[in-house]
Structure formats: C-alpha cells, structure tokens
Design brief:
heterodimer, A: mainly alpha, Cytochrome Bc1 Complex, Chain D, domain 2, 6 helices, 45% helix, 0% strand, globular, B: alpha+beta, FAD/NAD(P)-binding domain, 6-stranded antiparallel β-sheet, 11 helices, 25 strands, 20% strand
Chain lengths: 123, 585
C-alpha cells in the first residue's frame, strides 16, 4: 500500500470517529488532555520546543513563523482541519512520515475529539 | 586580569546543584551568577530529532561529556606508583554545558538508607566499636535523614519522580521497597511501565522470597507540572536517556525544569563558556574573595569578586579547585592527615546476562530508569556478622536501551567476530536481558584524590590524580552479592545464564561502570576529617560552600542524585540565611 492510500484510509477512519463523537466534544475536557502537549507547545503564540498551537485549527501545516520544521512537515501540504488533526494526533508518523515530533500519539478517540475541540478555542 | 563588579553569590559549575541552589536564592531576591565552562544545549542537535538519536555522536563519542583533549585525570592504584593520564575515559562521564551531567543522566532518583548519613555510628552500634577496620574512614555526615526528608520531598515534587512508595511514615507499602527510608507520601507520578525483562526479574526474585520494586525515576510516566509551574512531557520509552538529552522534555533535568525558569528571574545570570581557573582565597582572613576565570570565546581572563562562593562542579573538579587554590589541608595518605581529596569512592557493579528464546524483551522499548530493584543485600540491610566486609549492593534488572552499537548481548562462548557472532546477535538481540548489582563503596585510606605532579591540562594546571583501586572490602562484598545475583538469575528459568562475574581489581577505566564517583570534599562534624561542615560550609572559609557527590563520605548502593539534590536545596536555604547574617552556620 502506498503512502497516499494509507493516509486516505486513516483519514476516512478518523472522519467516522469524528462523526460518532460530534455530539460529545468537550473543550474543557480537551484542555486536560492538552497537558500531554504542554511541555512543548504553548497556546499563546510564543515559541517553546514545538510551534505554538494558537490558531492551529485551519492553519496550513508547517507555517508557524520562526519554527524550524522538519522536511516532512514542510512538504506535507496539509490544512489542519478536524480530520487531519485527528489522524495526526492518533499516530503522527502515519500521517506525516518522518516528522520529528517526539510523541507516539493518543489512542483514545474521545480524548482526541475533546482535544481538537479545545485546540479550536485557541484563537 | 580585568576585575569585574562584585556579585553576591557566584556559583562554579552550571549543573544540577547550581540550579537547585539558585532556585532557593533567587526566590528570596538574592543576586546569583553561575559560571559554566560549556554552552547551552537546549536548541542544539543533541536536543532534537533526528540528530538526538545519533548513537555514534552522543554515546560512543561522548558528545555531551568533558573534552579529554582539554582536561583529564591521571590514575594509579597505590601511593607507591606513578600515575598515568587517562587519554579517553569510559568509566564515568563528567558533563559539560548548562545542566551538567544531569543532561545525560538516566534518572534514577533514590533516597538513601535511613542510616546512611550516620553510617559510622550505625556500624558501631550494630557490630561494636572495633568492627570498622582502621583503613576504612567511615564517618557520619552530621545531618540526619530526618533533616533531609523535607528537601527530598521537595526535590521529588520539583522533578516529578515516578515510583511506588515502600514506607509511608513507617507503614510498609506492598509493591514498594520495604527497606525504604520513611517518606511522608507516595511519589508524584505512578511508576513507569515494567518491561518484559522487569517482569522476568520480578518473578524470579519473588520466587526466592524477595520484594522487588520499580526504581524511582525522573522519566515522567505521565505529563507533569511541578510546583514552579514547569512542565514535563510524557516519556515515549525511546531508550535514549543516559548519554542523551531527552527531546520529548520527559526526563527531569535542570535545562528543562530549572534554568528556563531561573533565566526569567531578576538577579539571575548564567555566564556560559567560562572556565574557572581558581578561587581567590585570603588565608589570613579565612575568606574567599571571588574567583578568576577565562572566557573561552575570547581567551580573556577575568577576576570575579563575590561575597559568597559556591563550588558545585563535577566531583573531581570540586577537589581540584580547592587544591589548586590552596584552601584546606590536602589529604596525605601516609600520615593520615589533611582532608582535601580524602574518602574518594566509586561503585562496584557486577552483572549477568540471561538468554530466553521464548521471551521477547524488545530492549529498544525502554527509559533510563525502567528498572526493577531489590534491596535485601544492599548496604547494611542484612547482617554482616562474620562476613568479613561491610556494604552491599542493590540487585536489579535494568532494561534501559537497545541501541544498535552498544547493545550486543551474545551467549558465553560466542566468537568476537565473524559469521557466528553475527548470527548470535540476530538470534539473541530481542531474547536477552541483563541483571546487575549496583554496589556500595566504602572509603579506604589509600583511595583519594590529589594533584598530579607531572601532567597538566590545556590551561597549564595540574591534573587531578586518582589513587584508587578495588580494595579487599569491596571485592569481598562483590563476590558475596554476585552469589545472590546468580541465584536470582538461575531462578528465572532462562535457556542460557552467563556467569555472574563479580567485579575485581584492578580498577579498569576502559569500561563504563557508572558516573557515580563520590567524595574528595567530605562533609562531617570534625574539621580534622572533613572539608565542609554539616551545612556544607568550608571549615577554612566560611563564605565558601561546596555541594555535590563530592561531599559524601562514602558511596551507597544507590545512585547519588537524590541526597545531593536534597542537600543542595537545603544549602540554598542555608545560604539565604548566610547572606543575611554571614557567620559559621
């Protein structure tokens, strides 16, 4: 299976999960999940180890100013919509192989949904 | 030499102890300058993917350790020999750069045995006044575990230690270490996942009636925010802790939890690439007046006056700077007088490898501290009557890496090269595990540090000379505990069990053993046998403080970081008092 197909299947699976959980999105619960991200990502636009996640929802991949992205993310050409965020958070290396975020992902779909709801509040 | 403006507190060495002491001082608004010979690693290749995983660069070539082309040590086994310089050190790894050796540590964070700070008194009470050999200068620290406990507690909260309590206020807790010194509560984070090797060890140890438990770890088992608001990410079990900087912010280190916060505080400055050449000492007034250093980027030498100086460099350097600056009487083994350089200790570690063809150990899933431990034969946890030695070792199973260059476990009898060697690697890489002993090392009159009369470093200063070997006490102990290790190994039901070989003399610097060298500036209550007081204040200069593993009068069967961190936090509070009222504490 080539990479494009893998991504498509992951995204399709993610879309199903999001559909199921659409009613149960909880940004407050997502803020608690965000603790897993907070040692590297800020929510206020300031840089830390990773790019800030302020305004991440709808942002083009690899576009946070001043951050030195991996080649993989620079050329990923993704818009961080719900489906891509969900698939990426579930397994970052499947969606953008070779990215250098040292995080293996969040397996729990509900946690991801809540986290995405929280990320959308970061404007 | 250009003279700079005086500072309140100047700290030599920007490692773990400097960070902890600075935290206490700057919280009270006290001005602190840290002088660090290395640079800042935080944004470098060593701290991010994919370069962080370069085993050749950071591990084999020791990219984070001291540059031995600039400064090394000499070694001899006895006072009668001439020492020779160590051209390349494998035995232990002094750090360089802000964060020091705590950048590349594995994260094992112990409280030592409750009796460790009273080791001499403890042995005299249990075995009689005459039991301690004349050539073993055991001494009490002048501080009790009870006095250190609040600072252990604080350090574990600051560094988000993951573990399972074994003794809460005297109540033994199932699953923890029954020999643990009493603590007030459980660890801030739950223990790390137990590896497959840990499960095998636990089963074998329990079969023999022992009580194995997970080692307290500074590798975060979950995301963590400490009382200062500093954050740790969750450990990803990548197996690159020791010799590496954690790129996931999951290994509690001063460059993650202390220095970023300190840099925001008023009155704190870390001056990098500054190599301290000496402490300026007024022997008549019995005071230090500051330090002098060379800026390594410009080659300019500076005098930095200070009201108070703290020596918090690597163990060897603490002794060296006192000796080259002529502060305190150098230890003389022949006459058994003097203090600087005495009670130099290390750790005597042994191991055994097990091969189990049906178990998948997957050694690459690991953290620095994924280790199970048992304390039944550690230190004085067992009766030494009639054994002819003191001390002991923690028997453990540490699965902390499966890296391609360094992880080569092959059964005994395998050739060292060729087709058979390659096949053995392929057959056993995921099916082998190791058990080991981390052994105590008690001081010996003939184990000490002094200045080398012949060899100098790149700055023209004498090298520190180690006079060190494994003496009878440690070798006897290693043989005894290795026998116990062998029993545990054979209880595991492995297909092949290697020999549980006890480490023996001569001391071999070509093998990594641990970075746990201790002593040289021992603490104590008697100025004739100690360099610093129980408050870590120099007996011959009350505005000079020394902290780190160099103040331990002996080494325990545990990693040294816990107590020295507790001592550093306590020292920070003591130095606040000293700055307000300068006097002997």
């Amino acid at each position: 299976m080539n990479r494009k197909n893998t991504v498509a299947i992951v995204l399709a699976a993610a879309a199903v999960c999001i559909g199921l959980n659409a009613q149960a999105q909880d940004a407050a619960a997502g803020k608690a999940v965000f603790a897993q991200c907070a040692s590297c990502h800020t929510t206020d636009g300031s840089p830390l180890v990773g790019p800030s996640l302020q305004g991440i929802a709808g942002r083009a991949s690899g576009s946070f100013g001043g951050f030195r992205y991996s080649r993989a993310l620079k050329s990923a050409n993704i818009t961080w919509d719900d489906a891509h965020l969900d698939a990426f958070i579930a397994n970052p290396q499947t969606v953008v192989p070779g990215n250098v975020m040292p995080f293996s992902g969040i397996a729990d779909a509900k946690q991801r949904t809540n986290l995405i709801a929280y990320l959308k509040t970061l404007k | 030499m250009k003279k700079l403006e005086s500072r309140t507190v100047v700290i030599i060495g920007g490692g773990l102890t400097a960070g902890l002491v600075s935290r206490q001082l700057t919280a009270q608004g006290i001005d602190v300058l840290v002088l660090e010979r290395g640079g800042d690693h935080t944004k470098g290749a060593e701290a991010k993917l994919p370069t962080q995983r370069d085993e050749l660069r950071w591990d084999t070539h020791q990219g984070l350790a001291q540059d031995y082309g600039v400064q090394t040590y000499t070694l001899r086994y006895t006072s009668k020999e001439s020492a020779l310089p160590v051209r390349w050190m494998e035995a232990f790894l002094p750090g360089e750069g802000l964060g020091g050796a705590a950048n590349h540590w594995n994260g094992h964070t112990w409280r030592w045995s409750e009796y460790d700070p009273q080791l001499r008194t403890h042995h005299e009470q249990r075995y009689g006044k005459k039991a301690i050999p004349a050539d073993m200068p055991l001494q009490d620290w002048g501080v009790t575990y009870k006095e250190m406990e609040p600072y252990h507690h604080l350090f574990e909260k600051l560094f988000g230690i993951a573990g399972k309590a074994g003794n809460i206020n005297g109540q033994i807790q199932p699953g923890g270490n029954p020999f643990e010194a009493p603590r007030r509560d459980d660890f801030p984070l739950k223990p790390l996942e137990i590896t497959e090797a840990g499960i095998v060890f636990k089963g074998a140890a329990e079969k023999l009636g022992y009580k194995p438990f997970p080692t307290p770890a500074a590798n975060a088992s979950a995301p963590y925010t400490n009382p200062d608001g500093q954050k740790l990410g969750q450990c990803q079990y990548c197996g690159h802790c020791e010799r590496f900087i954690c790129e996931a912010q999951a290994k509690a280190s001063p460059e993650v939890l202390l220095y970023p916060m300190l840099k925001q505080r008023k009155g704190f400055e870390a001056r990098l690439n500054c190599h301290v050449l000496g402490i300026n000492y007024d022997s008549k007034a019995k005071r230090v007046t500051g330090v002098h250093y060379v800026d390594l980027l410009t080659g300019t030498e500076y005098e930095q006056p200070a009201e108070v100086v703290m020596l918090g460099a690597f163990t060897m350097t603490n002794s060296k700077l006192l000796l080259t600056s002529r502060i305190g009487k150098p230890y003389d083994a022949a006459s058994n007088t003097g203090v600087v350089g005495k009670n130099f200790c290390y750790q005597i570690n042994s191991g055994v490898t097990l091969f189990m063809k049906d178990r998948w150990f997957n050694p690459f899933f690991a953290t620095g501290s994924t280790q199970m431990y048992m304390d039944e034969y550690n230190n004085d946890n067992f009766d030494h009557s009639g054994l002819g030695f003191f001390g002991g070792g923690g028997i453990n199973c540490s699965m902390f890496k499966g890296r391609p260059i360094g992880s080569r476990n092959v059964p005994p009898g395998t050739p060292n090269w060729g087709t058979a060697w390659k096949k053995a690697n392929a057959d056993w890489y995921v099916h082998s595990m190791a058990m080991g002993i981390q052994g105590s090392c008690y001081p010996h009159r003939e184990n000490y540090l002094s200045l080398d009369p012949t060899y100098t470093d790149a700055y023209g200063q004498p090298l520190i000379r180690m006079t060190f070997d494994w003496r009878d006490n440690e070798q006897k102990m290693a043989r005894f505990v290795a026998g116990k290790l062998s029993e545990v190994a054979h209880a595991a039901g492995a297909d092949i069990v290697g020999p549980a070989a006890p480490r023996a003399a001569p001391f071999d610097i070509r093998q990594y053993q641990s970075t746990h060298i201790t002593g040289g500036t021992p603490m104590g209550t008697d100025p004739r046998t100690s360099v610093v007081s129980p408050h870590l204040q120099h007996w011959d200069a009350h505005n000079l403080f020394v902290v780190g593993a160099s103040v331990y009068p002996h080494n325990s069967g545990y990693n040294p970081t816990g107590p020295l961190s507790a001592l550093a936090l306590r020292l920070g509070d003591d130095m606040v008092k000293y700055v307000q009222h300068p006097q002997m504490l």
